[in-house]
Specification:
de novo design (two linked rop proteins); 106 residues; 4 helices; mainly alpha
């Protein structure tokens, strides 16, 4: 069971989310460069990457495992964004957009 991941709506939304997160991260404090910014960038990339990797698996069960990892990365990203919100980091509007798109991907 293989999927063309580029045609999956969830992968497309996850790619949009990654773009938004990278843009949002540009406004975060420089002292967070090797901490929070790297973390949100990594987990945002993990979401579409795991969807894509799972789409190449031959069984539904294996695909589901990678979708599960992608969901876990979405929760991780949501937590990182909530930390940014609590710390009053970055643009409120960009953060809201990111949070809304995380909810769509989930």
């Amino acid at each position: 069971m293989r999927h063309n991941f580029k045609n999956l709506k969830v992968w497309q939304k996850a790619m949009d989310l990654t773009d938004l997160v990278f843009d949002y991260g540009k406004d975060l404090p420089v002292n967070e460069r090797y901490n929070l910014i790297d973390q949100i960038n990594r987990c945002s990339c993990s979401i579409p990457s795991n969807i894509a990797e799972g789409s190449g698996k031959t069984t539904s069960k294996h695909f589901a495992e990678f979708l599960s990892i992608s969901i876990s990365s979405s929760y991780e990203l949501e937590t990182q964004l909530l930390i940014c919100e609590r710390r009053n980091y970055g643009s409120v509007n960009k953060l809201r957009e990111c949070m809304e798109l995380v909810a769509e991907v989930l």
